[in-house]
Amino acid sequence: MPRPPLQYCLFLAASLLGWPIASTAQEVVHATLGTVTSIDSAAKTITVLLPGAKEQLFKVTGPTVPIDFDKRMSADSQPAATFQTTGAFAVVFYIGGEDNQTAVALKDLGKGPFSSTDGKVTIWDRHLREMTLTDSAGAIRQFRIAPETIVETVMGALDGSQYQPRRGDEVRVVSQEENGASTALFVKDM
Questions:
Q1: Can the peptide bond before residue 5 be classed as cis, meaning omega within 30 degrees of 0?
Q2: What is the CATH number of domain 27-108?
């Protein structure tokens, strides 16, 4: 019978004896969407008007812990400490709890026009990467999910290529129309 590796034996012994084990835990990056209403460089804060007319204050300091931030989203956004566009409609990538949020990066979505749709997923075509929603009034809307689409889930922010919605999921989609087709820019699980 083969012997288990030494690392496994040490881990098992530490677990049974209650010894602390070094962790490489990372802070999960989440995303929200809103209009940047003010940037205070001296106080190192950014204020964002979220949907529903709620203002959220984000600290702007470098993370003091390792963060789990998708490489594609990181490359496609601007570090929060250098973001200077008041009035921008942007995705805010942040860490922390509801009362203690620190902005990591922002992605300016541009001028728009944008539309917002709340509904239930009725069809997910994983080959075409298209999601069909039915809203509360029964209207049907179809959205393309691009790799650049940002998706906020309870497990953190994902890029669109990782998103796999299921029938019945309730979501909010902020989209932009181009050539008669709607592309989701931001999706939030409700």
A1: no
A2: 2.40.50.320
